[in-house]
Description:
heterodimer, A: six-stranded mixed β-sheet, 11 helices, 34% helix, B: six-stranded mixed β-sheet, six-stranded mixed β-sheet, 25 strands
Amino acid sequence: MTYRIVHYTNQFFAGLGGEEKADLRPLVRPGAVGPALGLEQALGGEAVVVATVICGDNYMAENLASATEDVLALIREHNPDAVTAGPAFNAGRYGTACGAVLEKAAAVLKVPVVSGMYHENPGVELYGRNVVLVETGDSARGMKDALAKMAEVTRKLLRKEPLGPAKESGLLPRGIRRNVLHEKSGAERAVEMLLARLRGEPFATEYPMPTFRRISPAPPVADLRKATIALVSSGGVVPKGNPDRIRVSSAESYGAYDISALEDLTPDIYESIHGGYDRIWANVDPDVVIPLDGMRALEREGVYGKLHPVLYTTTGTGTSVAHAERFGREIGAALREAGVDAVILTST
Amino acid sequence: MRLELHEVVIRRIEWGDRTGAWNGVLTVNREEAAAEVAKDERFASVRLDLAHPGEKVRIIPVKDVVEPRVKLARSGEPLGYFPGFFAPAGTAGKGLTLVLRGAAVVTCGPIVAFQEGFIDMSGPGAAYTPFSETANLVLTVEPDPRLTKHAYEEALRLAGLRLAVYLATAARNVTPDAISVYEKGNVTDEAIRLPDLPRVLHICMAITQGLLHDTFVHGGDMKASLPVLLHPNEVLDGAVVSGNCVSACDKNTTWHHQNDPVVRALYRRHGEDLNFLGVVVTPEDVRLAGKERAASMNAALAESLGATGVIITEEGYGNPDTDLCLNAKQMERRGIRTVIIADEAAGTDGASQGLADSTPEIAAFVSTGNVNEMIEVPAMERVLGYPEAIALLSGGAPESLRSDGSMFVELQSVIGSTCELGAGRWGCAEF
């Protein structure tokens, strides 16, 4: 079967004009226009470009949401098996347009989408997660090479073949880590990498260090005696039976439990389900992880205002940073909404 | 120091009247071997089973894996093994050791909350663990109900070691198939002999968080220890023993220490491309002060040995990521080049940051895989141990075990799957 492709390009690459035509509204031409001609050729008859949708870069930039919808409507009429765009090289407006159109097309039409960009194109940062992007040079001098790579990737996706690691497939990484089998063991790779470093030879780290977002601490509590304090924990202490089925490790959820009527976390009502530490002592007395008994005593003494009635809890072992960040954002928003002034965060 | 490993290759284990080895077959007298384990009166029941490569067998939950070995005097007299446990102090690293290569003792049983892993002897899960390729004697024990969990951990740890020594001792008169010699002079002499080669140290981080997360060196508990320098031969000869009940993918089993792949890889190049100084086993303390102390001591030790490069291997993930960063930072700041071997916890979708801590000094990182990646493993014909344990394993969940016996689990529940000593070939790439 011959696959059907719809291609998106801008006024310039469609040959309709330069900056003076950048206000052009979305329109469609039958068959391959501009770069789509080379793409079709590189696909070697396995797929045809049934239509090319064209829009001016400025019109797109100024009306991104509505123009994307209009372009998608034009694409949809041609029932494509895949949608391609660009390549945009280092053109920012064009890259953003290609990314926006393809992200929408992938979400709505559920078909493979492919474009090509230079790694510094803002479209990469904006849409690189959801759009397959071939790595290109920074200018149209690299057109032939970019189209050949786009054709190769599009062909694989149409055939439902795996793409392989980004670097090997000529793709811009999408920030997705997947397990692969190397030729050599980790120990051998490490010794080779170390020798390369010591000899001043080039080497490639297998995991560039992530940069963490730093959160500046909130100001100190002005008057503790009037403060509402909440208990939040990653120590895996939950109501007995783990009603919300929070995982023992690699948690993807947290629980919120009413503790307003409780004075003490006793083993008949609370337990630790945490998979990362020896929980014998926590299950003898869950207060060693979440100190409710101590907090109640201090509350009675008037050391602080009052204890927040809701306990937030999850397990913090093997929990991915992405989930942990989400838990933090959601719990933080809920606590702020409830007028909580401070949190005691216990971990294990 | 000179160590000779006299390797007897074992391809199968069979039950028989007499325990011993012949023609690649390790014969085990099942009752006698069980009685050896039962010398420790802390077990309510002891059961031995066999599992071989290619069989449709699942072993769960696995605590430790031990290679059967015994130290022999030149006269052939057995001297036990694992100094501090079943051999006198000072016996690791030199002389003659009989190794039953290809055989393994696998310990299994209901540990505290099952923070353990599984082994599939065939199918897709087998590709992730070295223990699908060994002929395994599987020891499943149930503790005396009066035993505290901590005493039970010790009993099972010792039982695995004891059984491994028993097997090798029984095979002590067998002619070895191969003799591997590990020999290296002292640090000073080697530095004079090899003046132009880079001097490399292996920093072996070990889980020492207590509460069933322990590592033992020469029988001593590393949680109470400062970083310790070992001759590589000591590491390859039973000086390091695992006492860990923790996430299965990246805990170093005793077998991994006995066959430390970093030590072996550095040894292979010693005198050719580099001068291998030794191994520092360093604790992963739970307290920040302890982490800072260990990292600064490791860097000072590396500096005083004249190391120009180090390979730092992590054990575990999460909390020890901080030890990893501090170690790398301290080394790099002293101009000592580092390479890290560690795994990633990038989430089931692979889209999350893979470490719980990060430092720009880590410029060379060998990744042994994403522990969270999901794998599908089919039902097996035989399950040794307790299949329902998967619900409580790190990487498992109550819904992991399906009614047909198949499982959908995170890779981290497979023992040794992302070994941070770099034993395997799995890694992680950006998609």
